[in-house]
């Protein structure tokens, strides 16, 4: 055998396999202090955005019904007897895709919202984990809270305001919004830039506590199923289930805030000066006793059934999509 043949065989043997070569092309530096239990924020932004887009396409019909039912309860002549009646009448009058009216306003916000949420959570987590890659219970709560506040201020408040106004507008005899961008332009022209930041305080409280509860419950259940070992893969089904549990836990703690936020962001938002004024008007015109009933039993929780159905699947889908997209990114994008 010639020396040339030996040289060629040696060169071929030294070449990496295609999968390894593909991964190396995506090699990127990890965040400072990277180590066990830490995820690259770039991965979180990408995985979060993809997960957010997929999730909202799966769950928007329940969001539409929830918003319609809550707004309808304040109408002089309610149109719907409940969430099922709302869904049935919408399909009858507008077809199946009538349940997707207003999707664009939420889809445009869902992708960056999930990106900001997961990126902020991973960023805070990276700076808090110990040498074993673990967080204390308080640190987990703080990471979730920070993620929720960040998404509320940057994305959720303006996008939710537009979404609620858009959906509410479609129920009027002569809708004035012809589409997402037309709706945003109309709101800014008529109400100013502050028109898309109605209910900011309620939104920050809602999103902050929402994500605090969700990440806390999800992280603890995941850690339990992993037996304390972050490297253990719990699988698609278990991830979906604990995501749903985390979503359900957040619903019962935040439904009152969600309804106040919906009132603040509807077309009748001009009646309220701010979030506190909205609450005070409920007390003034409906009475303190009625207000307590609203919070714990009646009005606030009339929207719970459709909201529970939406949020359980919403959170289950987004965590499941996020974890699985992250697995793919870990394979093609190696960080050290």
From TrEMBL:
It is a multi-pass membrane protein. Keywords: Membrane, Mitochondrion, Repeat, Transmembrane, Transmembrane helix, Transport. Solcar repeats lie at residues 39-127, 138-224, 234-328. GO terms for molecular function: citrate secondary active transmembrane transporter activity. Pfam families: Mito_carr. GO terms for biological process: mitochondrial citrate transmembrane transport. It comes from the Eukaryota. InterPro entries: MCP_dom_sf, MCP_transmembrane, TXTP-like. It is found in: Mitochondrion membrane. PANTHER family: SUCCINATE/FUMARATE MITOCHONDRIAL TRANSPORTER-RELATED (PTHR45788), TRICARBOXYLATE TRANSPORT PROTEIN, MITOCHONDRIAL (PTHR45788:SF4). Belongs to the mitochondrial carrier (TC 2.A.29) family. This is Citrate transport protein. It comes from Pocillopora damicornis (Cauliflower coral).
